[in-house]
């Protein structure tokens, strides 16, 4: 009885402490936003221990010019549908409404205007691409592709040929197109999920290219198969087949690789892999399958609170080094990536209502001119020229050097980048790699840790460890020998010598680890289980979990120490044990179990010893090994966890005098009971909150009215 | 026990019911006189002085300012519109009613709360529904809007060299409709579309010009609130993009050899400045003030299921007066407007132009709140990024190596670091940076060295209550009578993080008390100066009192507060200060250097700097945090204002994730060499222009600007990449050249 009261008190105190401390929250931050020369913030994302976080960065791009009909001295634009830049730096603007191509020279001065190709209008055309002196026009409304020379003289027109590979229901409405150095033309048709139509230079249809595939999970496939087996013919006929998402834009880089963009890759889920770089065989060779393009914090889903729809990555442009820029039509933003799909900078904005320079209302096309990015806006009827800043140029050059393995050569540059922008993650990575290649391993570890670069950290750590072992081989070897000899002596001592020390409670506690059946039987029979020792073990368990999180090596631990809340761990460890004990006691009493609350509690706590050993050992090992070497530790900790489970099962069976079957039943009911206790607890908290809100309302009424 | 509980419950319920039975007082306007008498008297002279006459023109039903010296007439109708004009087919071009309107009003119907607009000319003047009468020094015209049951009283007064137009919101009469906005003389400052050598001046940020060289079918109207946006309501949660603030309530229009400069001389905080650009239907582009008579805020109602605009329970209380200055010949450009405005400020604020300005200015960040795990429990506390010892070493090194005495602003040395905590940081010094005793020593040291040290206090925003200000009773209120709650922003979307922590604004009537406490604390700390960044750059409403509706009485209150600092041997610095604060303070840090960059804005001009340089010590934006540091450096040089650097000690990984953008380029070790190099490059130039005012400024070509100072120094700044030839010699790309008294450097 005394124990029960004590137990209740402990529970209450724990709950109170939790309630008082759980409300600790992060500090409020404000962003007083001034333009600083650009009406949007430039930022990038850090992949941290706690997921991704948007962080300010020095701008890679700034608005250098805004071109419109007035500044170019031409008749007002109707609808700028697309933009393309040729190898000479000439810019081609396609006005779909007025069926005019406006050609600007490399200084963005008007060069000429083309209003027909071979006397044929291309009103309603949605796409333009210029390469090797050829202008390719996706003449959407006329279901054809027009090819002209740079003077606007018609060379040929491509229409949809009769072919077996063209499905019957295929509608040819070209919206975007590109061409490679061989003159092969890739044409995207509106709403088509077959990918791009590939034409040879001579206009021969070669097939489809770059179609997305339908991904189906195992469970989904199983249920689909089962449904099909049980479905009537009528139902089958009425069922919509699952189709791949349509490609929304494509671009051929200087090495003739085709990049595709898919605005939406999965319904209601994270939009991963929106950008692909296709090999000639059609496989994606960009490490993009798991990459969320655009806003990572937005999770690419709707934001109804802000009336913001899901992201839609709708266009792409690629430069000669594989850096690419995509635009999103929801946030009206541009995202610049390196060839490893690392976002270097996000910029632009306007949420489709931008009235400031560098913000947009409806981005319709994008292309690159050297380091600069040109963005067409069909609503604002303007072209925005984003000039790559000196910082941006330097960052690009350094990323390229680092990707090429020229770490040392890039080091000074990375220092300058770090000086200009202490928040630049790639500077830390670059400096870490440079230090690693130069044999400055401790420095490399420091930078790699700052950049959350576990690979570089592990590589540097391997060298540091080897140096440490080499330097301290003799004392370490001696220590190891002493430990082994000591362990052997302890193991081979006579049994009588081993058990004579200490009180019987301690003896039973120790024996429970090696002989759980005998020990738990003695605990039950002799009533010598100790709540004190059990609580000590529980505390040790709690500490072992916290230690693992707080003092484990950076390369093993997931989660940020600064936001780590040990009170949550308290609930997950101590709370779970206490809850299990109480629920099990209640359930087993009803089921004829003879175990007392203190006995259940003691048994469960004693059973935690293997896990505790595993936790401490794992924490220690994280400072000695690197992840690739520590696979065996997972096996060991897994085995120790299973052993703990075994001990709990054995202990519960013994103290309640249950059969195994009855144990299973009681365990299920115990879990159910735990759920009920949690539910009641949550209801209680809600009730308290509502009472508080009511009292607050009464107070407000009295105070303000 | 039971009895006591019963009694307490009964009292609580009774009091609640009493509370429900009453509602906050609605301040009603005078009722619209449906039996009003219209009065269009014969021509008369309302007022007259040596240079001007203020006339009532009965034929045209309008007030006119006649300039005797220039034989020119000025009124709210564009001067060109008085001439008969014909289109290409020979038909007479009729003037758009908007350009003939003395006022335009926006109002909401009390029943459906839909917003409507009435143009003064069509709804009142044309039909003769007005009453004009002579005042002692001007003319009063009451414009009746019979269909809307609204009347607006406008006073036209003649001053020495300008016309003043005033609207007192308290004199507005209403009936079925509620007035929300009044546009004053919308086309007084206007230029004809598609004309050369004409532009509008908009005071966005540092100031900008809008060329009127094109006409479009698209309506391009930009509005910017004077002294910035008001407190945000919980539902105003989309920030979208960044903008600059209108710091100076001045605007203007230039057309050929004449110009007009408008200055809002009272009630500026209640106004917005609006630019209506290139509208083909109207034929003119104009810039004008709009009074926010009755503020409305979109809020959730019916348990959050509906959005509705909740209007303030009364109109703004402060009279709004706009002064229009005609300018001619060499005065008729933005340089002339700047001079005109500067003269006005000097007279209004009695500014003593004792201006010793430092070429190098430092803003040092002391600490920031960082969440760390203490024994596994997250704990938020101030972490020093630059403690006072490091601060001293930075100041000493800069002083020694640049041979200049920098002005220093200490940010985030208070109780909550650079973050929002208690009001004014609880008037304490963070122990993490060294504590009060250490600060006293530092302050004393630099007082003796004559280096101004400004300790920044946040006297406006607070997150937790203190003895100075309680969250419950000392927070400013929004239109529905609830506390104004502000949230931080998501960087990626610019939207509010409504789930994150929040902070509050100090009740306006508490500001004087808090400022006095700050003054006492500063004296106790031996500080030679204080910096009031949030006070200087924010103006906000507080719907706990009508006096503060629509940001009303901001200037008057702040002037009174700042005057109270006089005689306390305490210098006051502001940051990107609004007019009233800039004119009354001892130092201006971070003068705005660009506009909000709207598409219709043609080019930025350093109007703010042109007004205050040589009048109040002033420095530019931090060079090291600028998107383009070289350009930021040149912008400071162009107007001779001091260079500013934002500094802190070396920062760790925990600071990287701070939501404050000021850390990313401010590590002293990284910036030091740049400071020394900049100081070396500009030493002679700054000594040549240190206390001199700006006479004129112009863009010679696209990338080359010329500034002429009062003492004869002329500087050419080349923002382009290529070398350019100037009248005083060649200037390399991204560089400057200056000459004074025939000497080129």
Task: Write up what this structure looks like.
- The complex is a heterodimer of chains A (705) and B (745).
- Chain A is α+β, with helices and mostly antiparallel strands.
- Chain A is 43% helix and 19% strand.
- Chain A is elongated and about 105 Å long.
- The N and C termini of chain B lie far apart (90 Å).
- Chain B has a ten-stranded antiparallel beta sheet.
- In chain B, helix 4 (388-402) crosses helix 13.
- Chain B contains 13 helices and 43 strands.
- In chain B, strand 42 (735-740) and strand 43 (743-744) form a beta hairpin.
- Chain B is globular and about 80 Å long.
- Chain B has 745 residues and is of the alpha+beta class.
Summarize it.
The complex is a heterodimer of chains A (705) and B (745). By secondary structure, chain A is of the alpha+beta class.
Notable traits:
heterodimer, A: 705 residues, alpha+beta, 4-stranded antiparallel sheet, 19 helices, 25 strands, 19% strand, disordered N terminus, B: alpha+beta, 10-stranded antiparallel sheet, 8-stranded parallel sheet
- Roughly how much helix do the residues of chain B carry, as a percent range? 10-25%
- Proportion of residues in helical segments of chain A: 40-55%
Order of strands, main sheet of chain A, comes to 3-25-24-23
Largest interface: A-B, 83 and 89 residues
Total strands of chain B: the figure is 43
Q: Give the helix/strand class of chain B.
A: alpha+beta
Average pLDDT taken over every residue of chain A: 85
Distance between the termini of chain B: 90 Å
Biggest β-sheet description of chain B: 10 strands, antiparallel
Indicate the low-confidence ranges of chain B by residue numbers.
16-23
Which spans of chain A have pLDDT < 50 for at least 5 consecutive residues? Answer: 1-32
Silhouette of chain B: globular
Biggest sheet strand line-up of chain B: 7-8-9-10-22-17-16-13-14-34
**Distance from first to last alpha carbon of chain A:** 53 Å
* Proportion of residues in extended strands of chain B: 25-35%
Please give the oligomerization state of what you see: heterodimer
Gyration radius of chain B, in Å: 27 Å
DSSP strand tally of chain A: 25
Structural class based on helices, strands and sheet pairing of chain A: alpha+beta
Please give the radius of gyration of chain A in angstroms: 34 Å
Number of helices of chain B: 13
């Amino acid at each position: 009885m005394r124990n029960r009261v004590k137990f209740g008190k402990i529970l209450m105190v724990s709950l109170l402490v939790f309630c008082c401390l759980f409300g600790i929250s992060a500090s409020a931050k404000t962003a007083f936003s001034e333009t600083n020369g650009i009406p949007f913030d430039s930022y990038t994302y850090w992949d941290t221990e706690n997921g991704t976080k948007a962080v300010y960065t020095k701008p890679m791009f700034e608005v250098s010019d805004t071109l419109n009909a007035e500044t170019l001295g031409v008749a007002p634009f109707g609808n700028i549908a697309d933009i393309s830049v040729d190898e000479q730096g000439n810019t081609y603007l396609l006005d779909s409404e007025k069926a005019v191509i406006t050609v600007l020279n490399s200084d963005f001065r008007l060069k000429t205007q083309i209003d027909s190709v071979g006397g044929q209008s291309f009103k309603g055309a949605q796409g333009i691409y210029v390469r090797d002196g050829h202008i390719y026009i996706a003449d959407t409304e006329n279901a054809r592709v027009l090819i002209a020379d740079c003077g606007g003289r018609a060379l040929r027109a491509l229409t949809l040929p009769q072919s077996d590979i063209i499905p019957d229901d295929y509608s040819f409405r070209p919206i975007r197109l590109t061409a490679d150095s061989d003159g092969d033309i890739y044409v995207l048709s509106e709403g088509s999920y077959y990918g791009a139509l590939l034409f040879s230079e001579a206009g021969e249809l070669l097939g489809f290219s770059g179609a997305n595939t339908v991904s189906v999970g195992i469970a989904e496939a199983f249920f689909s198969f089962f449904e099909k087996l049980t479905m009537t013919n009528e139902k089958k006929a009425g069922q919509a087949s699952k189709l791949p998402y349509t490609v929304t834009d494509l671009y051929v880089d200087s090495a003739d690789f085709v990049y595709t963009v898919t605005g939406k890759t999965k319904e209601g889920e994270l939009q991963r892999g929106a950008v692909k770089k296709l090999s000639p065989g059609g496989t994606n060779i960009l490490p993009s399958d798991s990459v969320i393009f655009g806003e990572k914090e937005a999770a690419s889903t709707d934001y109804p609170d802000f009336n913001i729809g899901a992201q839609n990555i709708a266009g792409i442009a690629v430069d000669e080094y594989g850096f690419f820029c995509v635009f999103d039509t929801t946030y009206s933003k541009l995202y610049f990536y390196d060839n490893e799909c690392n976002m270097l900078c996000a910029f632009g904005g306007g949420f489709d209502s931008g009235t400031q320079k560098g913000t947009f209302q409806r981005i319709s096309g994008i292309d690159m001119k050297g380091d600069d990015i040109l963005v067409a806006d069909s609503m604002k009827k303007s072209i925005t020229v984003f000039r790559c800043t000196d910082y941006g140029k330097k960052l690009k050059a350094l990323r390229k050097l680092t990707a090429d393995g020229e770490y040392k050569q890039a080091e000074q540059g990375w220092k300058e980048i770090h000086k200009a922008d202490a928040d630049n993650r790639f500077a830390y990575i670059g400096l870490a790699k440079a230090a690693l290649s130069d044999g400055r391993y401790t420095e490399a570890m420091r930078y790699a840790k700052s950049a959350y670069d576990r690979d570089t950290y592990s590589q540097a750590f391997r060298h540091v460890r080897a140096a440490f072992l080499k330097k301290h081989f003799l004392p370490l070897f001696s220590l190891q020998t002493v430990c082994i000899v000591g362990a052997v002596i302890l193991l081979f001592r006579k049994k009588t010598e081993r058990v004579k020390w200490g009180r019987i409670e301690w003896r039973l506690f120790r024996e429970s680890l090696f002989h759980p059946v005998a020990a738990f039987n003695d605990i039950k029979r002799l009533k010598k289980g100790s709540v004190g020792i059990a609580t000590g073990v529980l505390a040790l368990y709690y500490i072992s979990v916290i230690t693992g999180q707080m003092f484990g090596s950076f390369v093993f631990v997931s989660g940020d120490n600064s936001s780590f809340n040990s009170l949550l761990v308290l609930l997950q460890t101590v709370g779970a044990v206490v809850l299990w004990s109480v629920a099990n006691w209640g359930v087993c009493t009803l089921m004829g179990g003879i175990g007392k609350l203190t006995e259940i509690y003691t048994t469960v706590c004693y059973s935690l010893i293997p896990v505790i050993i595993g936790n401490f050992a794992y924490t220690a090992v994280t400072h000695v090994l690197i992840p690739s070497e520590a696979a065996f530790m997972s096996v060991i900790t897994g085995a120790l966890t299973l052993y703990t489970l075994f001990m709990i099962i054995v202990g519960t069976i013994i103290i309640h005098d249950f059969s195994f079957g009855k144990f299973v039943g009681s365990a299920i009911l115990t879990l159910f009971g735990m759920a009920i206790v949690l539910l009641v607890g949550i209801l209680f908290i809600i009730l308290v909150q509502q009472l508080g809100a009511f009292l607050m309302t009464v107070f407000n009424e009295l105070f303000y009215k | 026990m039971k009895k006591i509980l019963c009694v307490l419950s009964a009292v609580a319920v009774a009091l609640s019911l009493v509370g429900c039975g009453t509602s906050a007082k609605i301040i009603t306007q005078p009722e619209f006189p449906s039996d009003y008498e219209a009065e269009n008297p014969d021509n008369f002279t309302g007022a007259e002085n040596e240079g001007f006459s203020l006339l009532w023109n009965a034929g045209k039903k309008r007030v006119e300012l006649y300039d005797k010296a220039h034989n020119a007439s000025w009124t709210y109708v564009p001067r060109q519109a008085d001439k008969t004009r014909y289109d290409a087919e020979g038909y007479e071009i009729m003037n758009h009613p908007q350009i003939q309107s003395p006022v335009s009003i926006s109002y909401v119907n009390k029943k459906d709360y839909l917003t409507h607009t009435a143009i003064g000319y069509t709804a009142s003047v044309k039909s003769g529904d007005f009453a004009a009468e002579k005042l002692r020094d001007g003319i009063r015209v009451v414009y009746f809007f019979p269909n809307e049951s609204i009347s607006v009283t406008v006073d036209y007064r003649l001053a020495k060299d300008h016309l003043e137009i005033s609207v007192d919101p308290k004199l507005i009469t209403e009936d079925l409709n509620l007035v929300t906005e009044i546009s004053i003389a919308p086309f007084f400052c206007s230029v004809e579309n598609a004309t050369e050598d004409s532009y509008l001046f908009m005071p966005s940020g540092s100031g900008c010009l809008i060329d009127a060289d094109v006409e479009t079918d698209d309506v391009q109207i930009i509005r910017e609130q004077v002294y910035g946006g008001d407190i945000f309501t919980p539902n105003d949660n989309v920030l979208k993009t960044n903008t600059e603030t209108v710091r100076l309530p001045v605007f203007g229009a230039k057309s050929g050899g004449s110009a007009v400069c408008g200055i809002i001389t009272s009630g500026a905080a209640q106004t917005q400045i609006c630019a209506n650009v290139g509208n083909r239907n109207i034929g003119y582009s104009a810039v004008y003030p709009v009074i926010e008579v009755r503020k409305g805020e979109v809020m959730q109602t019916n348990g959050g299921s509906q959005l509705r605009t909740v209007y303030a329970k009364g109109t703004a209380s402060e009279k709004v007066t706009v002064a229009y200055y005609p300018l001619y010949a060499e005065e008729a450009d933005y340089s002339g407007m700047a001079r005109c405005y500067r003269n006005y400020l000097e007279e209004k604020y009695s500014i003593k132009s004792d201006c010793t300005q430092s070429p190098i200015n430092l803003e040092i960040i002391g600490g920031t709140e960082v969440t760390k795990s203490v024994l596994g429990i997250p704990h938020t506390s101030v972490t020093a990024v630059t403690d006072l010892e490091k601060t001293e070493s930075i100041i000493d090194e800069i002083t020694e190596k640049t041979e200049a005495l920098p002005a220093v602003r200490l940010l985030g040395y208070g109780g909550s670091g650079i973050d929002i905590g208690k009001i004014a940081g609880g008037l304490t010094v963070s122990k993490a940076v060294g504590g009060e005793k250490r600060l006293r020593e530092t302050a004393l040291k630099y007082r003796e060295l004559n280096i101004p040290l400004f300790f920044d206090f946040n006297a406006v925003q607070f997150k937790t209550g203190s003895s100075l200000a309680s969250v419950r009773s000392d927070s400013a209120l929004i239109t529905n009578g609830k506390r104004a709650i502000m949230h931080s922003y998501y960087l990626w979307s610019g939207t509010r993080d409504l789930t994150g922590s929040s902070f509050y604004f100090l009740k306006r009537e508490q500001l004087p008390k808090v400022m006095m406490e700050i003054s006492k604390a500063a004296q106790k700390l031996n500080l030679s100066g204080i910096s009031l960044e949030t006070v200087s750059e924010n103006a906000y409403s507080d719907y706990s009192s009508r006096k503060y509706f629509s940001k009303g009485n901001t200037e008057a209150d702040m002037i009174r507060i700042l005057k109270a600092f006089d005689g306390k041997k305490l210098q006051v610095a502001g940051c990107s200060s609004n007019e009233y604060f800039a004119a009354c303070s001892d130092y201006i840090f971070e003068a705005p250097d660009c506009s909000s960059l709207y598409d219709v804005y043609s080019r930025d001009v350093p109007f703010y700097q042109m007004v205050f340089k040589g009048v109040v010590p002033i420095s530019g934006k931090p060079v090291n945090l600028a998107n383009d540091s070289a350009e930021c450096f040149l912008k400071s040089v162009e107007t001779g204002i001091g260079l500013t650097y934002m500094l802190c000690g070396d920062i760790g990984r925990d600071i990287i994730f701070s939501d404050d953008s000021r850390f990313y380029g401010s590590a002293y070790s990284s910036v030091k060499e740049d400071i020394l190099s900049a100081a070396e490059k500009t030493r002679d130039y700054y000594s040549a222009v240190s206390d001199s005012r700006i006479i004129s400024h112009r863009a010679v070509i696209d990338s080359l600007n010329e500034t002429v100072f009062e003492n004869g120094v002329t500087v050419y700044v080349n923002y382009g990449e290529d070398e350019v030839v100037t009248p005083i010699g060649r200037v390399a790309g991204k560089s400057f050249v200056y000459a004074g008294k025939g000497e080129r450097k």
